[in-house]
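Input set for joint prediction.
Command: fold jointly, output tokens.
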Amino acid sequence: MDHFNRVRNILTEILDLDEQEISQDSYLVRDLDVESIDLLEVALALSTEFAIEVRDDEIFLRHLRTLIADAKAEGVDPVARIVETLPHIPEKRAKEMVADLGDGPVLKVRDLVDYVGHCCR
Amino acid sequence: MKLSFSGKTVLVTGGNCGIALALAPLLIGEGLFPILCHRHGTGAAKIDEHLSPWAGQYATAFFDLACPEQMGALFADHPGIDYLVDMAQGDYETLVASADPGRLARYMAENIGARAELVRLAARAMVGHRFGRMIFVSSAAAGMPGKGQGLYSASKLGAEGIYRSAGLELASRGVTAMGLRPGYVASGRGDRFIEQQGQGLVKKMPGGCFISAAEVARALVFFLSDTARHFNGVAITMDGGFSAGK
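tokens >
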């Protein structure tokens, strides 16, 4: 089973959702109404499922806004700073995040999939 | 009333203190499995000496608030921890204005910062199996410190805050937490203090006696039980009424 399906299985179980409700482009907070305690359970389940050490701050992009704000204040390209600090985020996705930030939390299911993929390399 | 327990394994920090040694046989009697923590070989030997009649019904493990980086190994070795009774506490009594700056910083880092790491690891283990109960053994001095207990009191209050939030944040996943604030306990450091104060102190106790380690241990067993699970996010004072009046 590929990483996305394994991540989706975890999300369906913890969030009590159907598979059809979760896609790679689902926003965790905006679309799936995920709360902090759910994210904790997701992190624990991912670490068990993939036998990886999940760092909650990184996988859930907890400091993304600060990261971008600091980069701008320092005159650094925010996209470059995201890719440098969070190596599981592809450049294309980082650009989307910067553009999308005004509409709310940007974390998507595909970001979790990218994180486990990066850790499992 | 017969107490019931949804879990089995109890991690006890400060496992060679008098209260822990009184607690362990009670836990074993309830069908639970205590893991008593120590910082050195002397502590482990003391535990084994006191609990020799119950050999094989408990375990010992290394735990030191001064070594938070080693706590992960403890939880990796014992992944099924259901209960935490946290009694570890550094000993540093001084007037705040007299404190050594380096020792002050280490004391707070160990007794608040490292304890937060303990709670973090315990919480993650407990949320993983959707059950857990944590009790922080605080002190009546948290709310009413004597002179020289400023850092002790502040670290107890800080730690109580960590446990309170853990109980608040994790209750929906079956994990609850509370603090117990014993008053003058005739055991360990408390015993030394009581001896120094003489008979004058016992006269201030409303019931005319100090609290024994066995009495605190029995209270802990109750607070660990399923019956007490709604004591969550609070710190209960157990001082015989000492702090109720003046």
